[in-house]
Amino acid sequence: MANYFLMQGNQFLKKHDFKKALALADSAELYAIKKDDVYFFKGRVFSELGRFSKADKAYNNTIYINLDYIGAWNNLGNNAFRQQNFSQAVKYYKKELIRNQTSIPYRALGRAYVELGKIDSARICFQHSIELNNNYASAYLNLAQLEEDEGNLNKALRFASRAYALEPTNIEYQYVYSTILVQMDRGKEAIYSLREIIKKWPWHHGAHYNLGRALIQSGQKIEGQQYLDEAENVRAAQAKIDHLENTIRALPDDPYSYAALAFALRKAGRFNDSMHSYKVALFLDPDNYDIWNNVANLYLLQKDTVKAINTYNYIVEKDPKLIDIWLNMGVVYALSNQKNNAIYAWERALEYQPDNIFAIKYLNKINNN
Questions:
Q1: Within 10 Å of residue 269's Cβ, how many Cβ atoms?
Q2: Burial 298-327 (b: 16+ CB within 10 A, else e)
Q3: What's the chain's Rg over C-alpha atoms?
Q4: Per-residue pLDDT at 356
Q5: What pLDDT does residue 138 have?
Q6: Has this prediction a pTM greater than 0.85?
Q7: Looking at the chain, which runs of residues are DSSP E strands?
Q8: Which conformational region is residue 174 in: left (phi greater than 0), alpha (psi within -120 to 50 degrees), or beta?
Q9: In terms of Cα–Cα distance, which of 179, 166, 171, 189 is closest to 209?
Q10: Which one of 10, 13, 79, 261 is CB 3.0 to 4.6 Å from 244, fit for a cystine?
Q11: For residues 314 and 303, what is the distance between their CA atoms, to the nearest angstrom?
């Protein structure tokens, strides 16, 4: 029974429904004889929420029960890494490696060494990671980035090419491979790839900047300068996001900080990241219907009208006097060719505000069609 609850909890975690995931973990804890799996799962949920102290406590409970639990020390290291405590992260990753000599903790240790400026140690860790798993694309990418930073562009290109070949649909690998080509004055070879990346990552400063450089290298100076100019606009938007992320580190329990970050991410077109931040905000303030409304609107931007309508319905079930929600719901129903439901929503809005000009306008228009 405990395993069943944890499996269900994992499904809700994937959907960023943190409250249900933790509730299912609590249910699993009631049935579990040995609770290390339960605590490990709770640690994962709290890590996703950025509740690092609670996550660390959960992982330490896991370790208290089972000192050799695979992944627990590694995840403690990841938490320290995310908080920019790289020296502590190194200690945790080394403890994981005592028990788990696999590619993942070696790569993680290498990333921490990079942040500490210990390049030779980082290189050795990435190489060990690849020796243990010759198809570990992420380790090849990290090694490519390390060699790129060290100016060893031929090596960097070789490793980036390997990562990209292993996972050709991974945009990050495609981006790193392309930017190394630009640095090698082979920008013409990267133009098509960088254009494709910008279609998927319109918010990415580096993609615009490197496409501008690639175009200039190939003689297309006017268009190249346009992308360099746009890169500055994108950089300014990213700077705002960075500032909001720093605000969250300072105010980790403030739902409005997460909502502000979510709004900035949404404007940048980073819808998945935006949804994650909104869901954290709702975990902190589950009855904030302004944030729920933003979630519904984001579902619309993602072209998921079913989830948008379900979210609007959830809101009005909790507070039926929210006029704007009825109005928005009616519009979505109308766009979905659900005329009767649209009329119902707008009529409900008029019950609470009989002179609402938008509801009257929408009803007149739909009844005259």
A1: 15
A2: bbbeeeebeebbebbeebbeeeeebbebbb
A3: 25
A4: 87
A5: 97
A6: yes
A7: none
A8: alpha
A9: 179
A10: 261
A11: 19
Q: In the prediction, which pLDDT does 162 show? A: 97
Measured from the Cβ of residue 158, the count of other Cβ atoms closer than 10 Å reads: 15
Half-sphere exposure of 269 (CA within 13 A, CB side): 9
- Two structure tokens written together for 32: 């579990």
Token digits of residue 73: 């020390």
Q: Are 96 and 105 in contact (CB under 8 A)?
A: yes
Q: What span, in angstroms and rounded, lies between the C-alpha atoms of 35 and 2?
A: 9
Structure tokens at 82: 């995310």
Calpha distance 111→93 (Å, rounded) = 10
The token pair at 166 is: 């292993």
**Rounded-to-integer distance, Cα 327 and Cα 312, Å:** 10
The one-letter code for the residue type at 349 is A
- Chunked mean pLDDT (size 10), the chain, 369 residues: 90 93 93 92 96 96 96 98 96 97 97 97 97 97 97 97 96 97 96 96 95 96 95 92 92 94 93 96 94 94 92 93 92 90 91 89 83
* Residue position matching structure tokens 């509801």: 359
pLDDT at 2: 83
Give the dihedral sign, CA 139/143/149/155: negative
Q: What is the dihedral of CA 261, 266, 269, 273, to 10 degrees?
A: 60
Element (H, E) at 73: helix 72-82
Residue with tokens 């395993």: 3
Find how far residue 115's CA is from the centre of its chain.
Answer: 21
226: tokens are 């346009």
In whole angstroms, give the CA distance from residue 159 to residue 142: 9
CB 312 within 8 Å of CB 300: no
